[in-house]
Amino acid sequence: MTTKKSGETKSKKGTSKKKTTAASGEVTSAADLKSFLLSIRDGMADDTVAPIFAVSAINNILNNSKIYKMLDKENKELARDIWLRIKQSGMQLKNPPVLFSADEECA
C-alpha cells in the first residue's frame, strides 16, 4: 500500500509483496511463459515487436533455470513459432536444441 504526500510516493511497512509475473518482467510458471510468448508472437504478427527484441526475449527465457519445467507442448510450439518468425525476418541463427531436435532442418 502506498500513500501520496506532497508529490512523493511512500511505502508503508508491513505490506505484502505482490507475486512477480510476466507483466512485471519475470516468468515463473508455465502460465506466465504462455502469456509472455503470446505477447511476443502477437507483437511480431502486427509489427510492433522488432525481431531483435524477440531474439532478446527468447534468449532470456531459454536461459531460465526452470525452462524445462515451464516448456510444455503448447509453450514449446509457441516458442518454435516465434523462433521461425525471427529466422524468416532475415536473422541467421542456429536452432536452440531445447526447441528443435538435432535432425530437424528448419529454414
Itemize the secondary structure elements and their pairings:
Layout: E1 2-5, E2 8-11, H1 30-45, H2 51-62, H3 67-70, H4 73-88
Antiparallel strand pairs: 1-2
Helix pairs in contact: 1-2, 1-4, 2-4
Task: Write a structural description.
This protein is mainly alpha-helical and 107 residues long. The chain has a domain at 24-96. Helix content is 45%, strand content 7%. The chain has four helices and two strands. It has a two-stranded antiparallel ribbon. The protein is globular and about 30 Å long. The model is unreliable at 7-23 (pLDDT under 50).
Please name the defining characteristics of this protein.
107 residues; mainly alpha; 4 helices; 45% helix; globular
The value of Rg in angstroms is 18 Å
- Pick out the low-confidence regions: 7-23
β-sheet strand percentage = 5-15%
Question: Helix coverage percent of residues?
Answer: 40-55%
Average pLDDT rating: 80
Q: How many strands, which pairing sense, and closed or not: the largest β-sheet?
A: 2 strands, antiparallel
Give the overall form. Answer: globular
Please give the alpha-carbon distance between the first and last residues: 50 Å
Number of E-state strands? 2
Strand order of the largest sheet: 1-2
Count helical runs: 4
Structural class: mainly alpha
SSE order, as H and E?
EEHHHH
